[in-house]
Amino acid sequence: MFKKILIANRGEIACRVIRTARRMGIKTVAVYSDADARAPHVRLADESVRLGPAPAAESYLKAELIIDACKATGAEAVHPGYGFLSERTSFAEALEKAGIAFIGPPPNAIAAMGDKIESKKLAKAAGVNVVPGYLGEIADTDEAVKIAHDIGFPVMMKASAGGGGKGMRLAYNEKDVREGFEATKREGLNSFGDDRVFIEKFIEDPRHIEIQVLGDKHGNILYLNERECSIQRRHQKVIEEAPSPFVSPEMRKAMGEQCVALARAVGYHSAGTVELIVSGADKTGESFYFLEMNTRLQVEHPVTEEVTGLDLVEQMIRVAAGEKLAFTQDEVKLNGWSIEARVYAEDPYRGFLPSTGRLTTYRPPAEHRDGDSVIRVDDGVAEGGEISMFYDPMIAKLISWAPTRDEAVQALDAFQLSGISDNIDFLSALLQHQRFRSGELTTGFIAEEYPEGFTGAPADEQLMTDLAALAAIVELTVETRAALIDGQLGDPVFPEAVQVVRIGKRDFTVAIAPYDGGNLAIVDGGEAIDVVGDWSPGDKLLVADMDGRHRIVQVAKSGRGWTLTTRGAAHKVVVVPRHIAELAKHMIEKVPPDMSRFLLAPMPGLLTRLEVKAGDKVEAGQPVAVVEAMKMENILRAEKSATVKATQAKAGDSLAVDQIIVEFE
């Protein structure tokens, strides 16, 4: 067994690998860029080595720096995590040449599966179902049109070296092919240096299901069941679960055996994932097709660990050290249900724009593990830490396990995070959505259910009533505390116990009667609600039992009111005495200033290009600026025809949210 390994990654996966290595008695080496000098993974490791400046191209993506760090520290092996160098054949070969073990598959397997066209040919030869399509070189648009007609519409055009949703175009007719083929080639060339494109049948009602495989260097290869990964936004996974609510035992066996055959065909060892696309319209469960193979650990690996009881990182380390797998296919368990939700630094209320800044509050739900349930948090951040614009926006993964799927679905109400925008409300809304609960999933779920974007989960009448009661209790608690401050205001004048609570544009009249250990609340003259819970001014979390209804609400002061966040939505609340509520109706509404003359930065990021200068005339839809944030380029366009009066930023500037970039006449 290795005595010391280096983790060629950052964030939550680096922390994840370090924890397993420590449990195995293996010393660890962390690497870091200048942006991560004080990151948790650096503190967690036994040693650390600086790689270089913040941009990944100057630090984490430099293979020679990783190898130098191994030699300097005596690390015998490298775990690449995922992303960065994890699927780069040249990196695995360079480590092998330097006499350093790669905790991953052999270079030839990485190369074979890294090319989407070649990998499909290999899969077909290994007896794996492949999507009907054309895998040869396509000369031009006319040939692409002919191939599309032969396959039958709709078809998907994909860049051979593509990934992460880039280099993909869906075509429903000949016009779509003619418009999209050359664009797909250009995206492939610009993003991956490869302009080859292949065309395949688009699967209707597609589900994204993947099989976890694990092999050793002695020819043993097993499948560790499946994961359902259909909840995606722009081809990026958001929620994953194991097992899939769609897959039958017969289908699981057929999928698993085909994926093992593919792994065997390329001489695979270590952990890997075969991604499949499944037709949800086919209730026989036979329409599953090979999509691609990821020759590394997956972000969503924890759900497989929870239902099998295996530590996949440990298995990878043992395989790399030459050990045989200690179990057989028949001994692979499938126990209970596990769900993972990815917490991202992005604002779902503003089109999921990325967010950067300091985590002023970071308090995830308390982890626990017993026979009835598991709450697990995989993260690599800490309160007070910085979410940088240079890396992926994922902050943490919340993983739950329970005996059944319904029990495993976790509300994220107790996940406290502030300082940046986050997608916790969106995740909570997804997990309580009736369609998700029923298991009727496709990769189009988010686009279909939120076509106009996300505005918060709808609140039913009972939740609105409960929120009105809790808001009144919060306000009464604060005002009573203020009235009791000794000597500040003379004799204390206790606040009125009947309040008007405005949530959005709706008013509730709430009467509160405190008693020792709780409050009785009457909302709009209804039956009294017995509210048992302890909340003090300054607390950010209010946990209450309301006639048997368990409520977890995040409380934040917002101007002269409050923001109460629960069950997938943030509710703006104002609480006032009845006589003030009457007077408030006569207040003139404040009209926000007209900012339409300005192009504002919608997110923090780097202004990479400014396409205009003072005096230029622009038309509606014309590109004006390009802002890069968290590995994504965002083109900012003119909303209407106008003339540029002045530019207030230049290419290379770091922008804050709502910073003025261009002013128009």
Percentage of residues in DSSP E strands = 25-35%
Biggest β-sheet strands, sense, barrel = 9 strands, antiparallel
Number of strands: 40
CATH topology category name of the domain at 461-584: Glycoprotein, Type 4 Pilin
Radius of gyration: 28 Å
Structural class: alpha+beta
- What CATH architecture of the domain at 461-584 would you give? 2-Layer Sandwich
Gap from first CA to last CA: 69 Å
Lateral strand order in the biggest sheet: 14-13-10-11-12-15-23-21-20
3D shape: globular
CATH class of the domain at 461-584: Alpha Beta
Uncertain segments: none
- In DSSP terms, counting alpha (H) and pi (I) runs of 4 or more, how many helices? 17
Report on this structure.
Among the domains are: 100 residues, 3-Layer(aba) Sandwich (Rossmann fold); 69 residues, Dna Ligase, domain 1 (2-Layer Sandwich), CATH 3.30.1490.20; 98 residues, ATP-grasp fold, B domain (D-amino Acid Aminotransferase, Chain A, domain 1, 2-Layer Sandwich); 124 residues, Glycoprotein, Type 4 Pilin, CATH 3.30.700; 67 residues, OB fold (Dihydrolipoamide Acetyltransferase, E2P), CATH 2.40.50.100. The strands form nine sheets. The chain has a nine-stranded antiparallel sheet. An eight-stranded antiparallel β-barrel has the order 25-26-27-28-29-30-31-32. It contains 17 helices and 40 strands. The chain is globular. It is an alpha+beta fold and 665 residues long. Its cofactor is biotin. It comes from Sphingomonas caseinilyticus.
